[in-house]
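User: Can you help me understand a structure? I only have the sequence.
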Amino acid sequence: MRSMLLDTGVLVALLDRSECNHERCVEDLRSFSGELLTTEPVLTEALYLLGPSVKAQKACIEFVLKGGATLVPQSATSLSRSVTLMERYHDVPMDFADATLVVLAEEAGTDEVFTLDRRGFSAYRIHGRKAFSIKPG
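Assistant: Let's start by predicting it. Here is the structure, written out as tokens:
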């Protein structure tokens, strides 16, 4: 089955109708057939960005609970790899959530990422070599 990584900005845009990229992200998601993968740091960032509204935060958590995305936990190995990547891409810079997505790409064997962070994911490389295929286009 095809899989694609889900980044924070898109998750927020999907849930927040007032977000300027909402319609674009919803349309791209409708045309995607496969599994969305994300990490706990991405979920945490999205909850923070959605603000203190319990309703908005609940919608985000329910999106995951209802199968909108598969939440992949970090292992000690993936955490260590994340730190290595953040040091390597310090000039971009790479935050922890992005690092966990790059590690997940390496572990899951996918190069597709659903993100609004074109700058970062255009610079990051899977296993230090392979570029990401960034959606929305």
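Now, to help you interpret it: Strands lie at 3-6, 35-39, 70-72, 112-114, 125-126, 130-131, 133-135. Residues 76-88 form the longest helix (13 residues). Let me know which part you'd like to focus on.
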